[in-house]
Known about the structure:
124 residues, 2 helices
Amino acid sequence: MKRLYETPCVVCGTLIVSPRLHRKACSPECLRKYRNRLVREKYRQKKSIMSCAYCHGEFTPKKAGQIYCGRKCSVAAMNGRKTALYLTDDRKPKPLVKVAGGPAIRTCLNCGKPFESDWIGKAS
Length: 124
């Protein structure tokens, strides 16, 4: 004959009589609620302190999926991504660094006339 254990349900408090000692919930519905609560608690612990993806400072996120500590870092990271795309695009001039020694003479792609330019990019 198996031994029966009496434990309270962790969700509703109902007394559980079972041959299993470590039974936590009295029904599948209580078990689902218990597991959801465990997931929420684990998520809260996980999100308690994070490192900002831009400035690497520590912060506590206010919503799920937050990777930047604030608006300032978010905007700076977005500008950095846009600049990186702009610099790697071969069809646009690269506007961040000026030409050493003064303006360079370029040729207009539309009309073919020469002009002076401070931008570093394609020469043609």
